[in-house]
Amino acid sequence: MIAGPLVLLVLPLLMAGVIYLLLRWTSISALLAVGTTLALGIAVLTLPLDQPVHIWGGRQIAMGEVVTIFGRELVLEQSDRIAMAFLFLTSAGIFFLAWRIEQQPLILPMGLGLLSLLNGALLIRPLVYAALLIEIAAALSVFALQAEGGVLTRGGLRYLSFTTLALPGLLVTHWLLERYALTPNDTDLLRVAATLLALSFALLLGVVPFHTWVPAVTSDSVPLAGTFVLTICNGAVWFLLLDFLKTYPWLRSHPRFESLVYMAGIAMVIVGGLLAPSQRRVGPLMGYAALIDSGSALIALGLNSGAGLTLAVLSLMVRPFGLILMAAGLSGLRARNGGDDAFEALRGLGWQAPWSTAALIFGGLSVAGLPVSAGFAWRWALCRALASSSPGAALWILLASAGVMAGVWRALWALLARQKDRSVPSSPEGWLTAVVIVVAIVACVGIGLFPQIVAPLADRLAAAYTFVGR
Amino acid sequence: MPTLVDLLARVSFLAAMPAVAGIFVTASLLVVSRDWRLNVTALIAQYFFVVLLLTRLIRLEVAAVKGLTGWMICMVFYLTERRASLLEQSPASNSASSPQRWHRWVISARASFCLLAGLLVSVAAYTAALRMPLPEVPNDITLACYLLAGLGLLLIGLSENPMQVGLGLLTFLSGFDLFYVALEPSLAVAGLLGAVSFLIALATAYLRAAQITTGDGVRQP
Fold it and tell me: Across chain B, what does the average pLDDT equal?
């Protein structure tokens, strides 16, 4: 019998090696990566946990079997299933676009390797090892973020720095909580643990003032790799946070939990909303848009209710639709403009790269949370939930969305400006690239029109985290 | 022929305040200096002093393995910077090498600022060691942990150069490792922390190589 958790860890790693060897044949390697992640995503979502399933040659696979490696347990729980399916299916989307967008898609093997580590972080018990695996994933992601022959990425370095700084807090918290189990009267241990956890997750999630790595990652890194970090790696951190809240219920019943999470979210929304419209390049604009989205998700979590948690999870699920599209558009435009994504330098490029422009604009609309886009589905529900209890927060979220829209509008204005003599010659976008981008846009608009496709999944995942009353 | 463990046992008399002083000197050198040869030498010495202090908290063999990991990291930095300096060197720059070499020993405004900031952080680390002693570790090791973490943080904040940031991250992690081995002596954690350090070194070396290839082009936001 094959243990399911082992397959989820080993298969992506094996395929990463195979795909690295086949990397010069972009189509084969990309489609292999998409196939692997799609298959694993569907398998983890559909295979039952409580009974083994027959696969080929009379072999059986048991998804719910506990695996022990070096004395540490790998356990696939109900909450991890949907979380891992989200990681796999989002990766499939990124790899699908990387197929047509990236010239040297190192993101394919690196992404699969990172998936293996992040899955390990979700499966392993105790949680202390998850922190170490996320740190290793951050170090490896630098190789995907840095474009070969491209300018030096500050984003990769900053992401690595902030993740490293978050590591001690998570590791020491584990020791403090073990100590508290032995001396339950010593409540100082809980106070220190809560402070360390708050600081560590603030660093990992890019809470203001530790947000500088977020725009840096999108500013000068490979755009789809940056999106991988902001959706998959960041998603894994969110699920780790939810795991912590589920495992240690005293954390969410802490008197300052709601206000702290709420204030952190508001700070991200305000800073992102103020800085997004003042950007002069598309890359940082995308980073600040992602910052606002993360902040809004924190505000939803700060509601400390079942509906709030569902909205936070839904935000994680729809964020990739907008960010992947934006990254694909940005990548296409940079490739045709010598790597420059300044608004001034992009003038008139929209007529030469219409599909990349469309991807950027539709992605921007979704991340801003405008109607008929994936982002609208959860952002509108959040504003409605906040309208009665804290209208100020709802107003800030709407203003921040307007800020992102202003930035996207400036980009569109520059892209569609009539330029008679563009000095940089550019190759036309192929029909296959157009098809891939159209599929992604249709998916983004489709989720906006029919949010009931992902909402039940978000609800199921939120229900698996039993730390809030539903 | 004596083994590495024997050699460590022979110098164990240094594993107290002399090692802490050594850590202070080497970490301060990393903060002030931008000469890669000096930095790699300082990092080698820093790992030696950290290993000496580790021998008081964990088994000698485990401390020796941690030291070996650290020295392998130094080797990665050495090879990367050696290659980078060869690529950066041009025939025209050789003729001007003697005044440059002379200028290297004159303390610049940047170096003075770094020295002052390093001293301030060291004073803060000393005060923190007195006021907030870390659990499960003696006072001198507490001071070493604070010094490494503080000066490591300073290094990360002072530069955007991949190698300087890498040195800062590794110095910070050394400080944390020195404390955490006393809390969690598990070999699995020790192995994973070693892997983290090594991957940080590889990632920063990769970024340094990219920096050299593209001619130090950090794009402004």
Answer: 87
Q: Based on the fold, state whether residues A247 and A313 are members of the same structural domain.
A: no
Residue A399 lies in a domain: yes
CB contact under 8 A, A152 and B221: no
- Pairwise pLDDT comparison (A326 vs A72), residue with the higher score: A326
Size of interface A-B (CB pairs under 8 A): 100
Mean pLDDT of A125-146: 91
Q: Which of the residues B207, B211, B214 would you substitute to probe the A interface, choosing the one with the greatest number of A C-beta atoms within 10 Å?
A: B207
CA distance B169 to chain A (A): 7
Per-residue pLDDT at B129 exceeds 90: yes
- Give the residue numbers in A contacting B (CB under 8 Å), as ranges: 70-72, 128-129, 132-133, 135-136, 139-140, 142-143, 146, 148-154, 156-157, 160-161, 164-165, 167-168, 171-172, 174-175, 215-216, 219-220, 279, 281, 284
Angle at A18 between CA A107 and CA A4, to 5 degrees: 90
Residues A332, A296, single domain; the answer is yes
Residues A115 and A263 in one domain: no
Residue A157 counted as domain residue: no
Indicate whether A36 belongs to any domain.
Answer: yes
pLDDT of residue B173 exceeding 90: yes
Contact assignment for B184 to A146 by CB distance below 8 Å? no
Residues in chain B: 221
Contact B219 A220 (CB under 8 A): yes
Complex confidence, ipTM: 0.90
Predicted TM-score of the model (pTM): 0.92
Chain A closest CA to B196's CA: distance in Å? 6
pLDDT band at A251, cuts 50/70/90?
A: confident
φ, ψ of residue B126 to 5 degrees: the values are: -65, -45
Task: Give the pLDDT of residue A152.
Answer: 76
Q: Which residues of B touch A165 (CB under 8 A)?
A: 153, 156, 172
Do the chains contact at A151 and B218, CB–CB below 8 Å?
yes
Residue A327, domain member (yes or no): yes
Q: Between helices A282-302 and A374-389, what is the axis angle to 10°?
A: 40
Q: How far A159 CA lies from chain B's nearest CA (Å)?
A: 12
SS3 A336: coil
Residue indicated by tokens 């110095």:
B171
User: Both A250 and A287 in a single domain?
Assistant: no
Query: Which of B172, B203, B214 lies at the smallest CB-CB distance from A139?
Result: B203
Claim to verify: residue A15 and residue A104 sit in the same structural domain: yes
Q: Do B180 and A171 touch (CB under 8 A)?
A: yes
**Cα–Cα dist A24/A316, whole Å:** 33
Domain count along chain A: 2
A140 contacts B199? CB cut-off 8 A: yes
Measured in degrees and rounded to the nearest 5, phi and psi for residue A153 equal: -85, 120
Q: Are residues A346 and A415 part of one domain? A: yes
The strands making up A53-54's β-sheet, listed across from edge to edge, are: A2-3, A60-62, A53-54
Task: Quote the CA–CA distance of A149 and A144 in Å, as a whole number.
Answer: 13
Is the predicted pLDDT of residue A466 greater than 90, yes or no?
no
A329 and A463 fall within a common domain: yes
Q: Within chain B, what is the greatest distance between any pair of CA atoms?
A: 57
Residue-number span of the structural domain to which A79 is assigned: 1-151+223-254
What share of chain B has pLDDT > 70, as a percent? 87
pLDDT at B171 > cutoff 60: yes
CA distance B131 to chain A (A): 16
pLDDT by residue (tens digit) across A307-349? 999 999 999 999 999 999 999 999 999 988 888 889 998 888 8
pLDDT at A61 over 90: no
Tell me: do A395 and A279 sit in the same domain: yes
Tell me the three state secondary structure of residue B162.
helix
